[in-house]
Design goal:
By secondary structure, the chain is an all-alpha fold. Helices cover 92% and strands 0% of the residues. It has one domain. The relative contact order is 0.14. The mean pLDDT is 94. This is CsbD family protein. Residues 53-87 form a coiled coil. InterPro entries: CsbD, YjbJ_sf. Keywords: Coiled coil.
Length: 90
Protein backbone atom coordinates (compact mmCIF):
# COMPACT_ATOMS: atom_id res chain seq x y z
CA UNK A 1 0.00 0.00 0.00
CA UNK A 2 1.18 3.48 -0.78
CA UNK A 3 1.70 6.31 1.64
CA UNK A 4 -1.25 8.11 0.07
CA UNK A 5 -3.57 5.24 1.05
CA UNK A 6 -2.42 5.44 4.66
CA UNK A 7 -2.83 9.22 4.71
CA UNK A 8 -6.40 9.02 3.35
CA UNK A 9 -7.26 6.17 5.71
CA UNK A 10 -5.85 8.15 8.64
CA UNK A 11 -7.81 11.24 7.73
CA UNK A 12 -11.02 9.21 7.51
CA UNK A 13 -10.33 7.50 10.84
CA UNK A 14 -9.75 10.85 12.50
CA UNK A 15 -13.05 12.21 11.13
CA UNK A 16 -15.04 9.14 12.20
CA UNK A 17 -13.35 9.20 15.60
CA UNK A 18 -14.20 12.86 16.08
CA UNK A 19 -17.81 12.08 15.25
CA UNK A 20 -17.90 9.23 17.76
CA UNK A 21 -16.31 11.40 20.41
CA UNK A 22 -18.85 14.19 19.89
CA UNK A 23 -21.76 11.76 19.80
CA UNK A 24 -20.49 10.17 23.00
CA UNK A 25 -20.43 13.60 24.64
CA UNK A 26 -23.90 14.46 23.36
CA UNK A 27 -25.55 11.26 24.62
CA UNK A 28 -23.39 11.02 27.73
CA UNK A 29 -21.71 7.76 26.67
CA UNK A 30 -18.12 7.77 27.99
CA UNK A 31 -17.32 4.46 26.27
CA UNK A 32 -18.29 5.80 22.83
CA UNK A 33 -16.41 9.00 23.58
CA UNK A 34 -13.29 6.98 24.49
CA UNK A 35 -13.60 4.87 21.34
CA UNK A 36 -13.76 8.08 19.32
CA UNK A 37 -10.62 9.43 20.94
CA UNK A 38 -8.83 6.13 20.31
CA UNK A 39 -9.93 6.09 16.68
CA UNK A 40 -8.64 9.63 16.21
CA UNK A 41 -5.26 8.58 17.62
CA UNK A 42 -5.18 5.56 15.29
CA UNK A 43 -6.00 7.86 12.38
CA UNK A 44 -3.21 10.24 13.30
CA UNK A 45 -0.78 7.31 13.51
CA UNK A 46 -1.90 5.97 10.13
CA UNK A 47 -1.50 9.40 8.56
CA UNK A 48 2.00 9.79 10.06
CA UNK A 49 2.92 6.33 8.77
CA UNK A 50 1.78 7.35 5.28
CA UNK A 51 3.92 10.49 5.44
CA UNK A 52 6.91 8.41 6.56
CA UNK A 53 6.41 5.90 3.73
CA UNK A 54 6.33 8.70 1.17
CA UNK A 55 9.43 10.35 2.65
CA UNK A 56 11.34 7.05 2.59
CA UNK A 57 10.24 6.35 -0.97
CA UNK A 58 11.34 9.84 -2.05
CA UNK A 59 14.68 9.34 -0.30
CA UNK A 60 15.25 6.02 -2.06
CA UNK A 61 14.45 7.60 -5.43
CA UNK A 62 16.90 10.43 -4.77
CA UNK A 63 19.60 7.96 -3.71
CA UNK A 64 19.07 5.91 -6.88
CA UNK A 65 19.36 9.05 -9.01
CA UNK A 66 22.53 10.11 -7.19
CA UNK A 67 24.09 6.66 -7.68
CA UNK A 68 23.22 6.68 -11.37
CA UNK A 69 24.82 10.13 -11.74
CA UNK A 70 27.91 8.91 -9.90
CA UNK A 71 28.11 5.83 -12.13
CA UNK A 72 27.91 7.97 -15.27
CA UNK A 73 30.55 10.36 -13.95
CA UNK A 74 32.88 7.50 -13.03
CA UNK A 75 32.41 5.94 -16.48
CA UNK A 76 33.27 9.26 -18.14
CA UNK A 77 36.39 9.67 -15.97
CA UNK A 78 37.44 6.10 -16.78
CA UNK A 79 37.05 6.72 -20.51
CA UNK A 80 39.08 9.96 -20.24
CA UNK A 81 41.90 8.20 -18.36
CA UNK A 82 41.86 5.26 -20.76
CA UNK A 83 42.06 7.62 -23.71
CA UNK A 84 44.94 9.53 -22.09
CA UNK A 85 46.90 6.34 -21.41
CA UNK A 86 46.35 5.08 -24.96
CA UNK A 87 47.67 8.36 -26.39
CA UNK A 88 50.79 8.20 -24.21
CA UNK A 89 51.56 4.59 -25.16
CA UNK A 90 51.37 5.15 -28.91
Amino acid sequence: MSGTYNKIKGTAQKAVGAGKEELGKAIDDPELQSKGILEQAQGAASKAFGNAKEAISDGIDKAKDALEDLKESAQEKFEDIKESVEKKTK
